[in-house]
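Action item from last meeting closed. Structure (160 res):
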């Protein structure tokens, strides 16, 4: 893919990072949608609806990342195969886990993306020439922090 080429101005380097984020967003979107279909248990109605809100939000996030790549005049990953080969998040499994494990898996995946975003925005060399992308990534980070807080709040824990 052309986005792996490097240029002195760092633009393509940033595109490679954005495509890495895109692939992870795609994986998390797919997993959230799949859990929305397959969740069972006494909290079915509320969790089914909650997960729908989350996958819709992730679709918007994905769209924003891909369009940012276009704004930088490059190409976002556009095939499932490409997404699969660039994603770091573990793919879902055929056998659906229980509701509690689903929420935990999603929360961990959000944290993975948060760490990925933090790594990019704290890379001065990458961001100083592109504050527009930096700003977008920071806003994505906040969205993921909110989404993972909501997931965490659904997980039942004793004593806290
Ligand atoms: Fe649905």
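Sequence:
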């Amino acid at each position: 893919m052309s986005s792996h080429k490097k240029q002195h101005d760092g633009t393509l380097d940033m595109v490679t990072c954005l495509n890495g984020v895109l692939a992870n967003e795609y994986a998390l979107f797919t997993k959230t949608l799949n859990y929305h279909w397959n969740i069972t248990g006494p909290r079915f109605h509320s969790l089914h609806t909650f997960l729908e809100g989350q996958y819709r939000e992730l679709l918007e996030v994905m769209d924003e990342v891909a369009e940012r790549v276009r704004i930088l005049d490059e190409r976002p990953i556009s095939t499932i195969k490409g997404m699969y080969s660039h994603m770091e998040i573990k793919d879902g499994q055929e056998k659906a886990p229980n509701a509690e494990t689903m929420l935990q898996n999603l929360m961990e995946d959000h944290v993975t993306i948060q760490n990925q975003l933090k790594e990019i925005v704290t890379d001065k060399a990458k961001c100083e020439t592109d504050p527009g992308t930096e700003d977008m990534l920071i806003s994505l980070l906040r969205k993921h922090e909110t989404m993972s807080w909501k997931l965490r709040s659904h997980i039942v824990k004793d004593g806290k």
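Note appended to the action item: The helical segments are 11-38, 44-71, 80-86, 99-121, 124-127, 131-154.
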